[in-house]
Amino acid sequence: MNMSKELLREIRNVAFITLLLGAVQVIITIPAGYFGISAVLGTLLGCIVAVFNFSFMGIILEKCLCRQNGAAGLAGVGYILRLAVIAAAVIWAMKASYLNYVCAVIPLLFPQIAIFIINAVRMNGPEVIFKLPFFGGIKITESIVNMWIIMAVTVALSIWLTHGMRLRNPSGKQLAVEKLVCMLYDMVSDTMGEKYLSFAPYIGTLFLVSILGSLSSLVGMRPYTGDLSVILSLAIVTFLLIQANNIKNHGVFGWIKSFTRPVPFITPLNIISEIANPISMTFRHFGNIAAGLVITSLVYGGLASLSSALLAWIPNNFLASIPIFQIGVPAVLSIYFDLFTSFLQAYILCMLTMVFVQCSGE
Q1: β-bridge mates for residue 139, sequence order
Q2: What is the pLDDT of residues 224-270, one digit of tens each?
């Protein structure tokens, strides 16, 4: 059966995510000991059937949409065939002692999860501003441009605040900056201990990057903290910092040995837990900021539609087009989503970083 390049690409993407989820399932179930090798074989069977089911369904839909010959007959036969393959796989997994039934059934849901992940990544992403003519074209998105703007403003502000500093008769801005720096070092000292004061500049930078990126929405910019890739990058840097601190304090062999504690049996779970830290940090921060962005946009659009509907009877087009309901209500939401949530998420990100780094050195 002929497939278009678009369908082939979608099948490849879904198959990759399905196999990745299958690998995660195997990693989770094997340490339990009860499943054994049957978990691997059952998961593999479920993933193969799930990918086949999605692929065959895609071919049928493509033929029906293109009105190719035999599409009507293929739709009916294909539906029955897909159900028969799934039923055969489930019965086989139930009857065969070397196939785990649960591990074979769960992957049948993985294509739906894969489709959700693919659509979530593609939906409402930052706009591509321009491309750099290197390595096949590097996309420069709105998030990257906004981050460059925030970086430029931060550098300019830092130069201005630190210009003309003196020991005697300090200026008001110098006193304010010194107070903020002392508060930062006190927070790091209280949370991590005095031996970790060298991490204070990184913690302060992390807080500024987070809070300024989130508050940029107040001036009409798209907050780059609502971009998953940006927060994931920050979380990866923090993850590498945690591992480097662990190796610095315990050595390479001590770092490897830490994954086998308290008993070697749970080593896979310790590895998963370590990898889950940056992922949880990413989705916690990204989810709150992105949710606020989406909710605020929906409220703005809904209030604009309400204004148009209620003022449609006014004969003057200019007066009828004034979105009067957008005045006041969005400002109340902004206090929570743009101010409170921004400070809260920046603080949580910094606190989690300090706790993880400090624990890695113990």
Answers
A1: 131
A2: 887 778 888 888 888 888 888 888 888 888 888 888 877 777 777 77
